[in-house]
Amino acid sequence: VQLVESGGDLVQPGGSLRLSCVVSGLPFSKYGMSWHRQAPGKEREMVATINSATDSIYYPDSVKGRFTISRDNAKNTVYLQMNNLKPEDTAVYYCYVPYINHWGQGTQVTVSS
Question: What percent of the chain has pLDDT over 70?
Answer without folding.
Answer: 100
